[in-house]
Amino acid sequence: ENVCFVGFQQDTLSSVVYSTKSKLRYDSINGENEDVILEQCKLDLLKLASPDAILRLSKSKFDSEFEIVSKTYFGLKLFSLADYLQQLSRNAVTVENYSIPKLSFVTTHSSLLTETDISELVDILEAYFSPEDHLNIMNLYLNQFQTEKEFVSSIHDLLASVSLDTEERNFVLIQCEDGYSNHDLISCAKFKMLEILSELKSNLNPNFHILFIVRLLSTRQDSSFSGYCGLPWDSVHIDELRPSHHILLPSLVIIQNLTVADIFDYKFPVDSSRQKRLLRSVQSAVSRLIDPSNSTNGRRPKRVEMLSMILTNPTYSDVSDILCDKTSWLLQKISLAEYSKDWSLLSSLRDGSQATYPTVIKSLSHSIDAVIEPILRGILGVLDTYQNLNILF
To answer: Cα–Cα distance between 313 and 320 in angstroms, integer?
Structure first.
């Protein structure tokens, strides 16, 4: 269970049931409906699932459940932190009949967000919300606080500083490295956070969203770490915090029905995605190209330079398009012969590469590059057999 559901403990199921019944106790229609409670429990538990566990389900003894489980899981839209915050903003949290800032406990296998990532996150959310909505994202690192008093004072002042009548949407990110090693620190911080919220209670602006974001090493498991916190926390696992288009891939819900050729040709809002995908494989393809010429080593830097120019300079767009089209054609031939549309389910995501590619989407990106690289290498071997690339320059 701890492999499929991140931070699963022996008491997780009972905690999920208790929290679900607590949330529904004010619902006069569904509060005592066992079917509704069961479905909500399944949903809360599914939020802790790792995406590779969902993808592998179709090849397990539970394959009959794959379609409905995957549809429900991908419907949660936990593809990135931006997707989650968009979902979170739609749902209010009420505990004991008073509104409190939304509290989330997020586990992840990706690296934590940098200031640049947060700036991009703001841009994504501003495009999602209406122009009248003003966003403010505050980023803190739990390890930056030297004492408990310093943490309490900082959070207290931060929450109290926002006026009750402001319409601004405030997101507070409290990030922490290595949740397994910092388990006690995180537990203490969560407890203190609830104390602060209870103390401020009636003086709190409900437009606050407070998120603990905890990175877990995918190569390590720790039975003492719990990924489910119960009320008033919303506990979720977001495998990769950054949007998948950053690494030139559509979301997992789309990928699971595509061949390698389909993924290569997938059109993003940003132009030249095929060229960028090829550009990632240039260095590897050139370095592994076997050339009968004695000048191979001296030719490599020049080949990298010329290919990079072809794929990035608009002057060579015609050549670049031909190169991409030929790669796509060969990928389609390979896809028909070797890869079915569920190839991503069969590629054993993360197997043997957890340390280098800790998230599913990055592991999948590496797998795609591994298919593209030998094709690009073969094309280059034909194109530049007699240093023909020099003709273009």
So the answer is: 9
The average pLDDT across 262-280 equals 80
Closest CA to 253 of 112, 105, 67: 67
Of 260, 212, 216, 262, the C-alpha closest to 367 is 260
What CA–CA distances, in Å, run from 234 to 63, 104, 105, 230?
28, 5, 6, 7
Structure tokens at 96: 């004991």
Structure tokens at 281: 């494989």
Residues 13-51: b if buried by 16+ CB within 10 A, e if exposed: eebbbebbeebbeeeeeeeeeeeebeebbeebbbbbbbb
Cβ atoms of 252 and 244 within 8 Å: the answer is yes
Cβ atoms 239, 50 nearer than 8 A: yes
- Evaluated on CA atoms 10, 15, 20, 25, the torsion sign reads positive
Phi, psi of 140 (to 5 degrees): -130, 150
pLDDT tens, residue by residue, 221-268: 666 788 899 888 999 999 999 987 777 777 777 777 778 888 888 877
Q: For residue 27, give the H/E element and its range.
A: none
Note the pLDDT tens digit of each residue in 65-112.
888 888 888 888 888 999 999 887 665 444 444 445 689 999 999 999
Q: Is the pLDDT of residue 282 over 70?
A: yes
How far, in Å, CA of 158 to CA of 150, rounded? 12
8 Å CB contact between 15 and 230: yes
Q: Which residues does 48 contact at the CB level (< 8 Å), separation at least 6?
A: 5, 6, 7, 8, 12, 107, 227, 228, 235, 236, 237
Helix ranges, 109-265 (H): 115-128, 148-160, 183-200, 252-255, 260-265
Angle between helical axes of 317-338 and 296-312 (0-180°, round to 10): 100
Q: Which two tokens stand for residue 192?
A: 């203190």
Condensed to tens digits (0 to 9), the pLDDT of residues 340-357 reads 555 555 454 545 555 567
Amino acid (1-letter code) at residue 235:
S
- Residues 2 and 218: their CA atoms lie apart, in Å, by 12
The pLDDT of residue 297: 60
Residues 232 and 227: their CA atoms lie apart, in Å, by 14
